[in-house]
Write a structure and sequence with these properties.
alpha+beta, 2 helices, SH3 type barrels, 5-stranded antiparallel sheet, elongated, 91 residues
Length: 91
């Protein structure tokens, strides 16, 4: 990782912008693959886990699966969670 950082420091601004664009595209692609994979596994009533805004692991039940998000009911609320942030779990 240190070698990569050293090489990045030697890049011009234009090269760094091009690298940034590439990295953003790659991250979006990886997230979309994860979301597609999760969407194939999710059904209404599935038990799932996710991290809330405070970093606490929350368990809930899927109430609705949408294109990029799922509505997940927990003990106290209904959350709108990105599919890529969900993992199958035991309720």
């Amino acid at each position: 990782m240190n070698q990569i950082k050293k090489q990045i420091k030697q890049l011009t601004v234009e090269e760094m912008l091009e690298l940034n664009t590439f990295l953003i595209q790659q991250i979006k692609f990886e997230r979309s693959l994860a979301a597609q994979k999760m969407k194939r596994q999710l059904f209404v009533g599935s038990a799932v886990n996710f991290e809330n805004n405070d970093g606490v692991r929350v368990t809930g039940t899927v109430k609705k699966v949408m294109r990029k998000f799922a509505k997940v009911e927990t003990s106290g609320a209904i959350w709108r969670v990105p599919l890529s942030h969900l993992s199958k779990g035991v309720a």
